[in-house]
């Protein structure tokens, strides 16, 4: 039997050396107590770049910005900056056969006054629309103009362009072009109550040949009569004022009977419009026309002592 191998000989002179310490995760770099000029230039460059990247506090950021609720309140309750008046009357002899052809409606000899309406205008919110409306009143361009359409329970319309002897409007030549008709912000106000003054866009019934004129200026307006809101007019017509005084006059105009075509006439008109007959549009201008000659007998601007008047209805 073989004998086991001899054990590994132990060296008595061999010593166990201590292991080196593990490397530190974040070794500290010794700082140079005496930096040279190159180090100082590098340090200053880094500091300058850092200051440019970091935002600086300004006075605008320190001041509180208006909240969205404040903007909504300004739109919901716009300030009245200007006031204009319109006197409405009825001319009983306008359709008489012996009436002088070509006479201005403003010179009606037997006018029957209905009353005065005072409108408050939102000049800060819609400066161009308000400026044009004031110019039309100051120049008497609306004077002698017919109220040519009344939709009972909704609104009435005036200011259609055309011939003066027919009770239509001739705007002044220096009237400004209204850029607010294509501004989405101009349609924020709603037709939420009676007495709302609005520039007609979707309800405009000026003749096509007038609208195609390069110098065309839209001056047709409507006034809601109530008793409720008119949401069908929202986002398609520009609200720029409200009735401050004379809501009873607006109600009296709304109560005037109008021409309403029968069902058979409506069907013929729809067919004529379908085949492109231009007479269909002309015939439609007679629909909802008041059976009494209601017109603007006088108009003008009223000076406002306090331009921050709040609109109020009686």
Automatic annotation (TrEMBL):
It holds the Pfam family Pro_isomerase. One of its GO terms (molecular function) is peptidyl-prolyl cis-trans isomerase activity. InterPro entries: Cyclophilin-like_dom_sf (IPR029000), Cyclophilin-type_PPIase_dom (IPR002130), CYP28-like (IPR044178), TAT_signal (IPR006311). Keywords: Isomerase. The keyword Isomerase applies. Residues 29-41, 55-64 have a biased composition (Low complexity). Gene3D superfamilies: Cyclophilin-like. This is Peptidyl-prolyl cis-trans isomerase CYP28, chloroplastic. The lineage of its organism: Eukaryota, Viridiplantae, Streptophyta, Embryophyta, Tracheophyta.
């Amino acid at each position: 039997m073989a004998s086991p191998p001899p054990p590994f000989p132990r060296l008595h002179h061999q010593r166990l050396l201590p292991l080196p310490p593990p490397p530190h995760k974040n070794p500290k770099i010794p700082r140079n107590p005496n930096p040279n000029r190159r180090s100082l230039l590098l340090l200053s460059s880094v500091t300058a770049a850092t200051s440019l990247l970091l935002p600086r506090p300004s006075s605008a950021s320190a001041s509180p910005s208006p909240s969205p609720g404040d903007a909504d309140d300004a739109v919901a309750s716009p300030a009245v900056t200007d006031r204009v008046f319109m006197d409405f009357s009825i001319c009983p002899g306008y359709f008489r056969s012996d009436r002088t052809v070509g006479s201005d409606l403003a010179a009606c000899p037997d006018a029957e006054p209905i009353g005065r309406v005072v409108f408050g205008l939102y000049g800060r919110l819609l400066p161009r629309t308000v400026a044009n409306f004031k110019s039309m009143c100051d120049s008497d361009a609306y004077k002698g103009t017919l109220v040519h359409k009344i939709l009972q329970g909704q609104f009435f319309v005036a200011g259609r362009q055309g011939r003066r002897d027919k009770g239509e409007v001739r705007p002044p030549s220096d009237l400004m072009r209204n850029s607010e008709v294509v501004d989405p912000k101009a349609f924020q106000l709603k037709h939420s109550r009676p007495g709302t003054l609005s520039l007609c866009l979707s309800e405009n019934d000026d003749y096509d040949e007038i609208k195609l004129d390069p110098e065309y200026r839209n001056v047709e307006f409507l006034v809601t009569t109530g008793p409720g809101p008119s949401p069908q007019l929202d986002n398609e017509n520009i609200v720029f004022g409200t009735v401050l005084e004379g809501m009873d006059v607006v109600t009296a105009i709304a109560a005037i009977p109008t021409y309403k075509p029968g069902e058979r006439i409506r069907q013929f008109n729809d067919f004529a419009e379908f085949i492109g007959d231009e007479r269909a549009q002309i015939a439609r201008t007679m629909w909802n026309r008041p059976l009494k000659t209601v017109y603007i007998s006088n108009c003008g601007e009223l000076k406002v002592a306090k331009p921050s008047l709040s609109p109020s209805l009686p």
